[in-house]
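User:
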Amino acid sequence: MTRGGAMRDGKPFVVTLAADPKGLNPNEFTIAEILKTRGYATGVFGKWHLGDQPEFLPTRQGFDEFFGIPYNHDIHPFNPGQGIYWNFPPLPLLEGEKVIELDSDADYLTNRITKRTVQFIETTRKIHFSSMFLILYHTILCMCPPIF
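Assistant: Predicted structure:
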């Protein structure tokens, strides 16, 4: 996403969890920010996983649009480790920076994210023709096996 890659302050960047105080450094330029200067429309759909605090969200990192979840869909109150290893809050579904749902049905999330991505492509194509950059991270493909 940035030139800094997976390193931050000389240390590996670890995956962020719910309400994590760290995330993608807002002072670094992302590829989305650079492409926007060249007239590209930018969007990210699916799982963000680079910080769920406002300053880390995709819309603050150069993306015009975001539809998805701020971290993996197994980080929610229904996780088998809830109360034993961690206490996750409800999983938000975001449109831009606005929470539009909590604990969305994972069975339909892939379809919803895909439809929203196609909508972005169709709308953007009419305005920008081919000048678009999008990232699509489907969440269901990232289901991590239990560690216990």
